[in-house]
Amino acid sequence: MFGAEDIDLKYQRRREWVFLLIAGIFLGSLAMLNILGVSRFIDLSSWLGISDESSVRFSIAIGVLPYPITFLCTDIISEVYGRRRANMVVWIGLVLNIWVLLVVWFGGWLEAPENLNPNGTMPVGVSEGKAVVPDEYAFYAIRTLTVGATVASMIAYLTAQFVDVHVFHFLKKKTKGKKLWLRNNLSTMTSQLIDSVAVILITYYWSKGITVPEGKDVTLFLLSLILSSYLFKFFFALFDTIPVYFIVRKLRVYLNVEDELGY
């Protein structure tokens, strides 16, 4: 026979394991999006019927792909574990960003090539009319983009994530714990708009990580990137309402939780 203390301990262990799993997915997604960053842009214009002659393109950075998962995770943590745990994960994410910066910086600093460019990239040589790419080129190219993208991401990330958590709990208070779909969508959509604008502008103007194609209007090009990034996140913000409802409902039963745990 199991006593009350054994049952409480069982649920307590479940709660911690589930929290670690969700936080792990959040932090893993965050690490991927910062390392991949703006190393590649994917043009999805043809998927949306936008012609090649159009001046407006639908392009997203590859680092954006895992981004919606981070907001899905913080919304689930907010709903099940409460605001304090959600904020804690956000702060741990900031520490992870700094750790990524240290690793890529230190990896490039050790035995750095003598011919390293001032901006941290490797020069491309020419031999017999063909480009010669040094063995270290890929690492230093990713390193340069990662450092710039991570700094931009940290600023945008902190702002967006705290806005997400604040709006989520503000709406939860106003709706008296009802209408999860409303706070999940509005909090995510608001914070992701902030993030999209901040990341693109900081990456372009500060870290010089975005190159505007020759002949393209800078303002129009940057607006296209911001809108593309936001619309991608907006779509997934709408899409994740169903999984948030489903997961939260199942977790409340599995963890024996009627309302948020508040820790």
What brief labels describe this structure?
single chain, two-stranded antiparallel ribbon, globular, 67% helix, 263 residues, 7 helices, mainly alpha
Structure description:
The chain is mainly α. It has one domain (4-123, 134-254). It is 67% helix and 5% strand. It has 7 helices and 4 strands, in the order αββααββαααα. The protein has helices at 4-36, 67-81, 83-109, 137-174, 180-205, 218-239, 241-254; strands spanning 41-43, 59-61, 125-127, 130-132. The strands form 2 sheets. Strands 1-2 form a two-stranded antiparallel ribbon. A two-stranded antiparallel sheet has the order 3-4. Helix 2 packs parallel to helix 4 (137-174). The two termini are 30 Å apart.
Summarize the topology.
Blueprint: H1 4-36, E1 41-43, E2 59-61, H2 67-81, H3 83-109, E3 125-127, E4 130-132, H4 137-174, H5 180-205, H6 218-239, H7 241-254
Antiparallel strand pairs: 1-2, 3-4
Helix pairs in contact: 1-2, 1-3, 2-3, 2-4, 2-7, 3-4, 4-5, 5-6, 5-7
